[in-house]
Amino acid sequence: MGYKQTSLQRFRLKRALQTLSSKEGRGTELVSLYVPPGRQISEVVAMLKQEYGTASNIKSTTTRKNVQDAITKTSQRLKMFKKVPENGLVIFCGAIPQNGPGSERIETYVLTPPEPIKIYLYRCDSRFHTEHLEELLKERETFGILALDSSAATYASLYGRRLEIIKEITSGIPGKHRAGGQSAARFQRLRQAKVQEFYKRVAEHANEIFLQLPDLKGIIIAGPGPTKLDFEKGDYLQYTLKDKIVATIDTSYVGEEGIKEVVERAPEILRNIRYVEEKRIVQAFLYEVGHDTGLATYGEEEVRRSLQAGAVKTLLLSEALDVVRVTVKCTACGYARQENIKSRTRLAFEQDLIDKPCPKCTAPALQIAEEQDLIDDLVELAEQAGSDVEVISAENEEGVMLKKSFGGIAAILRFKPSS
Ligand SMILES: [Zn+2]
After folding, report:
1. Ligand 1 centre from 244 Cα, in Å?
2. CA geometry: angle at 106 spanning 29 and 325, to 5°?
3. Helix (H) or strand (E) holding 50
């Protein structure tokens, strides 16, 4: 089965995991809990209660307290759910040192995975066990593979790393060299007719096999020599399938060997497919910019305004966008302002605030009252407006251009905003 993850879901999970996997406990006191769909909340709560009891044997007072606090917090969060969500539930909870020893604060993270998890796990360790979620970031889409030359055709499906050879047919067409006594022209004519008949048969089976694959992301056509290209160019495949061809790959072999060659190169092929997708999205944006159609906009303020007006069809965000939107508030007079800062300068920014006087009442009482990742902030607006969101990697030319020339924030519009 294939579950379709959007570029946004993948990005969110990827970033959450980056943050979580970098966290370290003071000792063995960080709780990781994976609850698959179908489990009873009460059953998991009972298990945690038992773990709480077991933890009372921990000798170190601090560790014991931190572990038991983490278990209590985890249990509380769990009880906020009436039932386990359809994809399951993952909770990470524990005392994380904020600024040197003795500065631990309990942090809790609740994640609902983008596709169902199967594992049921409770761990208490010096780190969060994120690896079972990292699994979900691997490519999980279903691809159909057709390897062919004029002698045979093999059909397979690829889901993640799982390959299934579905069918193999042979053409029965003799080689390119004629037997004696036949004219060369006649031999070629007959052979060509047979090849075309074979293509038709190949297509019939392809229509039958590939249309039945759930959530088919694309079809890869492979094989040695030019046969695959002739087949692709000819109108043999049903148009819905023809539209799904995402790659044509040269292989040394046909048959199962040819399919295996494709699978070995699958990571590179899939990366390339996403690359092409991203390229298409950014190019569509550049087209509107270049033709001055008024249907493109970029820069945070412009895009924010268009989102609020409900004018955005597709929101393009660079994965490299590393900005936090903070609300700075004065605890003395209530003065507040919003500011964008780079994520990695956040700590220094907070330290700086300590000595700064409030611009309104001059009290040294400025604090970060709220903070939100700029991407999350814009995505929220997009969700309210029903806009598509595409998170574009910075691993290719188009992605770099989106970041460098357009500040990493751009949009294709549904309609021209009235000005
Ligand atoms: Zn003030």
Report:
1. 60
2. 135
3. helix 41-55
Q: Are the beta carbons of 416 and 294 closer than 8 angstroms?
A: yes
Determine the Cα–Cα distance for residues 121 and 390; give it in Å rounded to an integer. 33
pLDDT of residue 191: 86
**Spatial distance between the Cα atoms of 123 and 283, rounded to a whole number of angstroms:** 46
Rounded CA separation 326/122 (Å): 35
| The pLDDT value given to residue 140 | 66
Q: Which residue has the tokens 């062919």?
A: 148
Gap between the Cα atoms of 303 and 318, Å rounded: 13
Provide the CA 344 distance to its chain's centre, in angstroms: 23
Alpha-carbon distance of 255 to 169, in angstroms, equals 9
Q: How far apart are CA 398 and CA 277, in angstroms?
A: 11
DSSP 3-state assignment of 88?
Answer: coil
Tokens representing residue 363 in the block: 């009290």
Query: How far, in whole angstroms, is CA 374 from its chain's centroid?
Result: 18
pLDDT of res. 252 = 93
Q: How far is the CA of 189 from the centre of ligand 1 (A)?
A: 90
What is the whole-number distance in angstroms between the Cα of residue 367 and the centre of ligand 1? 10
366 C-alpha vs ligand 1 centroid, how far in Å? 7
Q: How far apart are CA 299 and CA 149, in angstroms?
A: 50
Predicted pLDDT at 139: 61
Question: What's the rounded Cα separation, in Å, for the pair 369 and 131?
Answer: 33
Distance 339 CA to ligand 1 centre (A): 17
> 416: how many CB neighbours lie within 10 A of its CB?
10
Query: Residue 93: how many CB atoms within 10 A of its CB?
Result: 25
CB contact at 8 A, 397 and 325: no
Give the model's pLDDT for residue 2: 36
Residue 167 · residue 54 · CB < 8 Å: no
The stretches in the chain having pLDDT less than 50 are 1-4
Q: Are 340 and 325 in contact (CB under 8 A)?
A: yes
Among 360, 364, 376, 362, which residue's Cα sits nearest to residue 326?
A: 376
Question: Among 291, 296, 271, which Cα is nearest to 281's?
Answer: 296
Distance 350 CA to ligand 1 centre (A): 16
